[in-house]
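Margin note: ligand = pyridoxal-5'-phosphate.
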Amino acid sequence: MLAGILDLDRDAGLPLPEQIYRKIRAAVGDRRLAADAPLPSSRELSRQLGVSRNTVNAAYELLAAEGIIAVRPGARPRVAELGGLDGAKRELEEKTRAPQVSRRGEGLCRDVRTDAYADPLRRQGRLQPGAPAEDCFPRDDWARALRRAARHVSGGALLYEDYAGYPPLRRSLAEYLTRERGVRAKPEQILILPTTQGCLHLLAQVLSEPGDCAWLEDPGYLGARAAFASAGLNIEPLPVDVDGADASGVESREPPKLIYVTPSHQYPFGCRMSLDRRLQLIDRAREAGALILEDDYDSEFLFSGRPIAALQGLGSGDEVIYLGTFAKSMLPGLRIAYMIVPESLAGPIAIAQRNAGLLGNVHTQAALADFIESGHYRAHLKRIRETYEARGRMMVERLRDGLGNRISVDFPIGGIQLAARLPPDVDDRAVVKRMVTKGFMLAALSGYGLKARLNGLVIGFADASEADIDAGVKALVEAIGTG
Ligand SMILES: Cc1ncc(COP(=O)(O)O)c(C=O)c1O
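Resulting structure:
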């Protein structure tokens, strides 16, 4: 009767009465033992199991005390009546007991990466877009900055006092971004969160109602799409060409509440937004009463010339929320990003940030402030700019050599990934799938389009050694064919 249920393990280190108790309890819980089923008497079970009667009695006493079995003098113990549930009811009960996400939760749990990545569960692979070079990370300087931070930060900063961000980092960033990116920012307007994704998520929730309209570059960043979709926004495509996002012809049924753009380095195409287009976008946002979310994720390492002025500094400062991250210039694992919000919104959004628990690690923030102030950050950026430029060039040259007219790809103007176009007879998602089996995690360009029909690949180059590039191009030649 208890075959397969009560196989005891004498080497488990768990007392035998406890093992018997747990196994019977589990079997009742998952219905292998039905309600009212008879159990062996303690004498019989002790004989079957080769244990003392006291051992079985101890287990039965525990089960009886919890109401899992009923023990009556002179009768065999039985599994307790479970409220007279019949089989069908029980099945239903089991189903409803399996935890489920809510309707709202379904939106929050949707993985938009499936559109671009062959295997979104796979979190890492060679030539992955968005991955900075681990071998360029200044481990020693960073370790020293972290050590200083761990030794010197004290008081309220280590508790919850500075939930919007560690004040010295907010000051350093205000000064650095005003100088380098032409933004308008007081330290109080800078909120520090773990990721840009967290910023986008929070902003979409705080600044819109479900059903509101949001414009998103087409093709555009999947993280922004996820944030907008989970806030229940209607997403309107903002077309992109070589001059960046073009708002001139967009006529959405309703005016947008939010407009997401990547002006200094369009994601995923990699172009810059022209000055005309930037000024025009600010005008459109003003007319609509919309806020522009300017994602400036990698402008600090454009390879030639200075990055274009930030949109945020072009307008009055109130039309734009500027977003930056250390996930590209340092490492995603630092989990530090920031946003500059209009003064009137800084207080309320900081409270929402605290309510959502989107707070940055204080030691990391202190180390970053130190890193920026001491000039290490600037030196690090200079180094990675050179390395990334060389890797990007090599990637393009090898792709062109290996695939000839089967691929169309330009030298990247900066950043850590590039977009390449494929001919119409090649299916980019099939290529991405084949590449995954060889350990490469490229993304399919088609997955980033809303209305735009695209066919190509997004390829990371920053973390690629020469051997990775050669192996990747060889695998691509096999996957695409040279025509
Ligand atoms: C356009 C763009 N913005 C933001 C980010 C991510 O920043 P974070 O890791 O801080 O969310 C990425 C990462 O790939 C990105 O491509």
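Residues 265 and 271 are 5 Å apart (CA to CA).
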